[in-house]
# Entry
Amino acid sequence: MDKPLTLKSARTLHITYNLPISRTSKFWQGLKEGKIYATKCQKCGRLHFPPVADCGDCGSSNVKWTELDGEGEIETFTQVVVKPASFSNESNYIVAIARLKEGVRALAWLIGVEREDVQVGMKVRLVARVTSDGRVSYEFIPI
Amino acid sequence: MGHSRFGDRSDVNLSELTFEAVQPSLEDSGLTAKEIPYVAVGSMGVWSEEPLPAVVIAEYCGLTGAGLVRCEAACASGSAAAFNAYSAIASGQLDTAMVVGVEKMRQVDTPTALEMIGRAGYYLWEFENFGMTFPAYYAVHAVQHMAKYDTTEEDLALVAVKNHRYGAMNPLAHLQHEITVEKVLNSSVIAWPLKLYDCCPITDGAAAVVLASEDKVKELGVEAPVWIEAIGFSSDTANLSKRKNYVGLEASVQASRMAYKMAGISPEDVDVATVHDCFTIAEIMAYEDLGFCEKGEGARMVREGETEVGGRIPVNVDGGLKAKGHPIGTTGVSMLAELTKQLREEIKPRGRQAPMKNYTALAHNTGGTGHYCYVTILRR
# Structure
């Protein structure tokens, strides 16, 4: 079969979104200080991570910041080998979901361990991180 | 109903591809384009150049003037469009409507396609810093399912082998070749433990069905019409970290219960099903979530051939998303088209025609990672 003919569009589009974080600024600021914050609803008591400014469970906007210890246990994980375009410069990365001792779960990269050595039930700690290019994030490290 | 050939369809543009499904669906229904008052289109559309696919395809297919809407429920957009059109008829406002699913995913390169789909979770908390991909979302389910039950990577491979066997019999399928368990296990890792052959391909395709009220069906004198008995739906959290667990999709459980109740049937009454096997683990979880077996028993069903033609409930005997292909917004409509043919007992070759006892079929279509779910029950 002949190769199908396509017209390469001359109009390219480069999109960078600006993400509003005013109402969760304590969380983003906390990461710079090495702290991980969640929010706790003052009406129904629900602890939220990732943090929220409004409680979808009971409708209250009265939430309070609370620091997480970060200790938890891996419930599941994967290793991403075929990466999305914007992660193409990264080495293969392990993404884990762990339940923290406060009861909430977090999803983040697990670093400092080979995939072969990761197991469901493994103890980890969620820690804040400032990347080499200045982004704030958080990751799991084995305990 | 009408259904284009699935695959890398760089030989046609969005409108031409849609025409391949719309024109046969009109001929099949006995209506002309001008007689269609409303068209609901299932399409994600981020990988092709047209931001308003509904108006573009409607103009090309002679449907301009009809009410138009593009429905988004990620990979369940086609089913969402079907519910939209069904509701318009069930409310009594319309007596006919068309449902179209179309997706042109191969106009961008693979890393860009992975990027677009990977962003479709909770972008801020799962993609911005962690680069989750769709295979990765399902891989975390495979890991927990394998840790909790006796499901193995070989079991996952058996799903791919089965669906490729039927894909090889389906002239409209993207991947029309058989594979072996060894080939699956030796294929390259995409998101551990999922390998290339555990994943559905990136596919272009279109499908269309015409819906009509009972009165209109009589007026048109449709022979052996296929009826929508029920459409059940549900959803789950955007953040995977907020789910109940990772051994199933709660939205599938809830949507199927709703559909069974509306149709007044139980899972045992289903003669044939299409389930959302975007990854092999997804098919195993679907057996369990839809009540075809108990939780944790899904792998046994595929091992024992219960979901093949001649088995207890044949599943994805069109090749499934795995081999037929998964043009995101098209899939839900493609399922309705396939099951309509199954219920009419028109499938060729006969090797993939499911035997009919109750003339009842089920389509299970999830969007995102169980973020959306629609379960549609059809009966002839």
In short: The interface with chain A takes residues 10-11, 49, 107, 109-112, 114-115, 118-119, 122, 124-133, 135-136, 139-141, 143-144, 147, 188-194, 239-242, 245-246 of chain B (CB under 8 Å). DSSP finds 14 helices and eleven strands in chain B. The radius of gyration of chain B is 19 Å.
